[in-house]
Amino acid sequence: MAVGTVKIKSAGAAQSPLLGFAMFSPAVLYIVLLIGAPFVLAIFYAFSDARIGSGQLHYVGLENFRSIIQSPSFRQAVKNSIIFTICAQIIVLVCSNILSIALEKPFRGRGLVRFLLLLPWVAPVSLGTIGWKWILDSIYSVITWLLIWLGFVNRYSPPMWLGEEKLAMASVILVHCWRLIPFSTVILLAGRTAIPKEIPEAAAIDGAGFWRTLFQINLPMMIPILGVAVLFGTIFTFTDMTVVYILTNGGPYDSTQTLPNLAFSQGIQGSDLAAGAAISVFLVPVLVVIAYLMLRVAHRAEVN
Amino acid sequence: MAVVETRKLTKVFKQGELGAVNEVDLETREGEFLVFLGPSGSGKTTLLRMIAGLEHPTAGEILIGGKVVNDLTPRERRIAMVFQSYALYPHLSVYNNIAFPLKAQNVPRNLHKQKVEWASSLLGIGALLQRKPRELSGGERQRVALARAIVREPSVFLLDEPLSNLDAKLRLSAREELERFHRRVGTTTIYVTHDQVEAMAMGDRIMVLNKGVVRQLGTPKDVYDDPADTFVATFLGSPPMNLIEYEDLIVGIRPEHFRLAEDVKETNKAAFKFRVENVEYLGAEFILSGLLTGGKADGKKVIARLLLGHSFEVGSTYDFAVADRHLKFFDRTTEKKVPARALTWQ
Fold it and tell me: I want to staple B11 with a disulfide (CB 3.0 to 4.6 A). Which of A197, B21, B137, B240 is the partner?
């Protein structure tokens, strides 16, 4: 009797349109208020002369875009964003592949290693990055200390990890990789375990060694999941400003300036909302194209 | 071509547990078709995987062509294996699937096309070379898997239940095709199955396994007519052999040998009263199940298989008999075969 009542109740509830609406409305509200509205506002600002502290708004057409494209900082930021994204993606893919292979087979302490590996992803970005700021500090850097102790580096002219143009870029990329690798590894581990066990075994019987099995069997079979990992990684990297903002704030001399950080520093810190909005909106078509291409690659691989 | 030999081959997966394969001694003959037959969990696939080099033995030796290969990779053993799921590479065309072993073993590139064409024409899949595995039927996939296996001309063929994914009708034709194929290439072949009909039909010899132990190794006729123990006796044959306890013995009677007394021409025979409890009509034959009545075997359940030509009524008792030469004898405690003995049933 009781079971019957419960059944009827739940069946009735599932059919009620009100409940369904109530269930998904928080998600819709969240997206509309925190993503949709600012996005529309940014597009709107990008075609105006909005400034912080000024109550007036005028339509200025493509003027903001014309001016940012002419600015050397912006061009540098575009270039840096591309380098930052591509380098980070390559390093992340290679490392997470190696890790996923290493973590696939069971061994003693695998659970602990998997847990430790996930920590950079679980820890708040800002805290992790502040930690790295200390690790890479010009005076207190433990890396420099270690290199001096090992005799690789001269005590009186130590490398300035965040103060030299090339080193700063490398540092920013590596810290970002440190953060993204766990995420990518988890995705690739899932993709790897989805390959039926007999397939690599058949490859072994057919005479394929480790590298041939990896590059001709396992990786091609993982293309859909690799596509997802690269798509997410690219978007996370292209739109990320935390690492750059905390470590270098774009310096020295714009050498690590990326588009999100430039948008923030011009739009919010520099009060030029219109320019900041134009820089942010500039990212949208690029990301849409990347997302489209990645999804197509993933889809095609799946179909074949 | 080569001979596969195992010496006291053992595999224990978890320490302290019973082995999946226990001290198996085996020697194949040149070019033979050897079948590993057993129920699931009997260790037949584990044994095959150890021979293939996919599983490392806990103890014992594996020899291929007279050489110990325990520490050699599958590649170095020069064996080919067809998996139950076929394990075709889903992202490669049929052509590239078949050519993969050639690439992997560094066969000169200019020979690939010729060899792939040879293997694919041998199996009649020449028209499918540009397709992807997912565009093939079950039977076609099996042929691609076989073509991929023979293309490098292996010394030994290992087949792991290659017919179990096919439907019943296709299975029969695929079985004949496999037999023809084996006669044609003549490579030593080890075939794993849990299907006794397949084993009887295809095997030059059958090795019956249970719980990781070899119960009997012999020709299909040997294992069927002269089973080494009660497990082999009941595992082969459908319906299985009737086992009747008699003093310190177990007496085995095949259902087809348990016949109407008037049909048993032999002079030395054991007579029984048989009360029919159930009749199954299978078109070409009857399956009767019922009880023996009277004498020492009173109340024992027995199944008989008879050709058409008689009619039986449920509940009636008939005179049945078994020729003495068709009685099998097993020890009641060890369940192993023992020499024939004169029995008195009354």
Answer: B21
Q: Residue A246: which of A165, A135, A145, A147 has the closest Cα?
A: A135
Our CA-based measurement puts residue B8 at a distance from the nearest CA of chain A, in whole angstroms, of: 24
**Signed CA dihedral, A238, A239, A245, A246: sign only:** negative
Q: How far apart are CA B314 and CA B288, in angstroms?
A: 9
Residues B117, B37 share a domain: yes
**Cβ(B255)–Cβ(B248) under 8 Å?**
no
Q: Do B152 and A207 touch (CB under 8 A)?
A: yes
Residue A127: phi and psi, rounded to 5, are: -65, -45
* Residue type at position B34: L
Provide the domain count of chain B.
Answer: 2
Q: What confidence tier does A87 reach under pLDDT thresholds 50, 70, 90?
A: very high
Tell me how far CA of residue B268 lies from CA of A142, B261, B310, B322, B328, in angstroms: 97, 12, 23, 9, 14
Instruction: Give CA–CA dist B11/B267, Å, rounded.
Output: 50
CATH number at residue B308: 2.40.50.140
Of B62-71, B165-174, B203-212, which range is least confident?
B165-174
Does the pLDDT of residue A247 top 90, yes or no? no
Q: What residues of chain A lie within 8 A of the CB of B54, using their CB?
A: 201, 204-205
Tell me: do B56 and B158 sit in the same domain.
yes
- Judge whether B306 and B255 are in contact, CB under 8 Å: no
Task: Give residue A303's pLDDT.
Answer: 54
CA A138/CA A131 separation, integer angstroms: 14
Q: How far apart are CA B270 and CA B255, in angstroms?
A: 14
What residue has token string 């397709």? B131
Query: For residue B334, what are its two tokens?
Result: 């060890």
Task: Using alpha carbons, select from A289, A257, A267 the residue that is nearest to residue A50.
Answer: A267
Residue B248 and residue B144 share a domain: no
Report how far apart, in Å, the C-alpha atoms of B83 and of each of A84, A103, B159, B218, B279 are: 45, 26, 6, 25, 41
Half-sphere exposure of A227 (CA within 13 A, CB side): 18
The encoded tokens of residue A123 equal 């820890």
Nearest to B342 by CA among B255, B244, B270, B259: B270
How many Cβ atoms are within 10 Å of B23's Cβ, its own excluded? 15
> For position A301, what pLDDT does the model report?
64
Q: Between B52, B88, B91, which is nearest A205 by CB?
A: B52
Phi-psi region of B317 (alpha: psi -120 to 50; beta: other; left: phi over 0): beta
What the block records as the tokens of A244 is: 């750059």
Q: Amino acid identity of B263?
A: D
Cβ-Cβ pairs closer than 8 A, A with B, add up to 63
Is B155's pLDDT higher than 90?
Answer: no
Whether the model pTM is above 0.95: no
Residues of A engaging B, defined by a Cβ cutoff of 8 Å: 196, 198-199, 201-209, 212, 216-217, 220-221, 223, 301, 304
Say whether both B124 and B41 belong to one domain: yes
3-class DSSP assignment, residue B332: coil
Q: Strands B21-27 and B67-68: what pairing? A: unpaired
Which residues touch A66 (CB under 8 Å, ≥6 apart)?
none
Domain co-membership, B103 together with B166: yes
Third-level CATH fold of A71-303? MetI-like fold (1.10.3720)
User: Which of A199, A205, A221 to mutate to probe the B interface, most B CBs <10 Å?
Assistant: A205
